């Protein structure tokens, strides 16, 4: 992991910085790297250094919002529980497509779950957040 990844990961380990502070710090670091003439492809590598952890947050967020959705049936909650069990026992991390397929199969209609799954898919495809305000409020996904 790069030094930027470690720095940005500090919020997950110690709860030290707010998501907003982390995003501002990330932007400042990337701007500094640009200002010293680092090549764009190298800056991109730095920018996605924490992609694995961001993906974890998105996938866990989708699953937790699905689990806690008032519109989820007991059967739908059971599917999420099985995915979470697999997550905990087999180092399984569902991709956006995995989650969207399950959401479609289970006929999930909760707009929060659907939009968060789309946010996850967008991030994995583009390396940026589709709805930065929702990403910055990610701690609420687990409540």
Strand-helix topology:
Layout: H1 3-14, H2 19-35, H3 40-47, H4 51-68, H5 74-90, H6 96-105, H7 111-126, H8 132-136
Helix pairs in contact: 2-3, 4-5, 4-7, 6-7
Question: Would you kindly provide a written description of the structure presented here, covering whatever features stand out?
Answer:
The structure is a single chain. By secondary structure, this protein is mainly α. The chain has two domains: 3-47, no CATH class; 51-142, no CATH class. It contains eight helices and no strands. The protein has helices spanning 3-14, 19-35, 40-47, 51-68, 74-90, 96-105, 111-126, 132-136. The radius of gyration is 16 Å and the shape is elongated.
List keywords for this structure.
mainly alpha; 72% helix; 2 domains
Mean pLDDT reading: 88
Uncertain ranges:
none
Q: State the helicity in percent bands.
A: over 70%
Report the order of strands and helices.
Answer: HHHHHHHH
Radius of gyration: 16 Å
- Could you state the oligomeric state of the chains shown? single chain
| Content-based structural category | mainly alpha
Helical run tally: 8
Number of domains: 2
Major sheet, described briefly? Answer: none
Distance between the termini: 29 Å
Q: Strand-residue fraction? A: under 5%
Number of strands: 0
Overall shape: elongated
